[in-house]
Design goal:
The chain is an alpha/beta fold. It has one domain: Metallo-beta-lactamase, Chain A. Helices cover 23% and strands 30% of the residues. Strand 7 (95-97) and strand 8 form a beta hairpin. Bound molecules: nickel (II) ion and manganese (II) ion. Nickel (II) ion (NI) is lined by residues 49, 51, 54, 109, 143, 171.
C-alpha cells in the first residue's frame, strides 16, 4: 500500500490493486506535488464535500482517466451534470468496490458548490472516508472540526490503521484538536494534511502537531510528508 500526498487534502492511495485520489485540488494549488497530466491511472476519486479546494479537478480527472467519483448525493448530482460517472452515498456501511471497500463517515463542516456563474448551490453534508484493502484501513477525514464521531464512529467502530487529518485550523481542526482526534482514533500512523496551501488558512507547523500527538497519543506515529512524497507499508 502506498499513500502519496499531492498537497492540501489530495492523496493518491494505491491499495488492493486500485488507485484512489482524494479531493483532487491540484491545478489550483501552486504547492501541489504533481501536475494533473501525470495522473493517468485512476480508478476512483473520493470527494468529501463541495468546497473548491476539495472538488478541485474532479471533473477533468474523471473524464480523462475514466475514474469513477464517489461523493455525497447532492454533490454527485452536480458533478454528474458535468459528465462525471460514479456513485453517491451517505455515511453508512461498506460499499464494495472490486476488491477493496469504502465507507463514508460523518464530518462536521459546511458544504456548498460555487458555480462558474457565481451561483452557490447546496452540496449536501460533508463526509470523510474509510478505505479498506490489503487487510488495512485508511481514514481520510476530509474537512472536519473536532467532534464525537471521530472517537465513536471512526475510532471505536472503524478502527483505522492510518489516519489522514486536517490540521490548519480556520475552517477545520487546529493542531491541538487534531492531536486530540488522533488520540481518540488510535491509529498507528497519522499523516497531517490541509496546511501550507491556501493563503486564507492560518500558518501552522506540522512539527508542532507531531509534538502534541506524542504528548496526547504516544502510541501514534506522525508521518510528515512534503507534497509529492509517499508513505508505504
Ligand atoms: Ni471545506
Ligand atoms: Mn478545505
Amino acid at each position: 500500500m502506498e499513500i502519496r500526498w499531492l498537497g492540501h487534502s489530495a492523496f493518491e492511495i494505491k491499495i488492493g490493486g486500485k488507485t484512489l485520489i482524494t479531493d483532487p485540488f491540484i491545478s489550483g494549488n501552486p504547492k501541489a506535488g504533481v501536475t494533473l497530466d501525470k495522473l493517468t491511472k485512476v480508478d476512483f476519486v473520493l470527494v468529501s464535500h463541495g468546497h473548491f479546494d476539495h472538488v478541485g479537478d474532479t471533473v477533468e480527472l474523471c473524464k480523462r482517466t475514466g475514474a469513477k467519483a464517489i461523493a455525497p448525493p447532492e454533490l454527485f448530482v452536480a458533478l454528474a451534470k458535468q459528465g462525471v460517472e460514479g456513485m453517491f452515498a451517505n455515511p453508512t456501511g461498506w460499499l464494495p468496490l472490486e476488491g477493496i471497500r469504502v465507507a463514508m463517515t460523518p464530518a462536521v463542516h459546511s458544504a456548498a458548490l460555487g458555480l462558474e456563474t457565481g451561483e452557490i448551490i447546496y452540496a449536501g453534508n460533508p463526509v470523510g472516508f474509510v478505505i479498506e484493502g490489503e487487510g488495512k484501513r485508511v481514514y481520510f477525514a476530509g474537512d472536519t472540526g473536532l467532534c464525537a464521531d471521530l472517537k465513536l464512529v471512526v475510532g471505536e467502530y472503524f478502527k483505522p490503521d492510518i489516519a489522514l487529518l486536517p490540521i490548519s485550523g480556520g475552517f477545520v481542526m487546529d493542531p491541538e484538536q487534531a492531536a486530540v482526534a488522533a488520540s481518540w482514533i488510535g491509529s498507528k500512523v497519522v499523516i497531517p494534511m490541509h496546511y501550507d496551501s491556501l493563503p486564507m488558512l492560518p500558518q501552522v507547523d506540522p512539527q508542532e502537531f507531531a509534538r502534541l500527538v506524542s504528548a496526547k497519543a504516544p502510541g501514534t506515529r506522525v508521518v510528515i510528508l512534503k507534497p509529492g512524497e509517499s508513505y508505504k507499508e
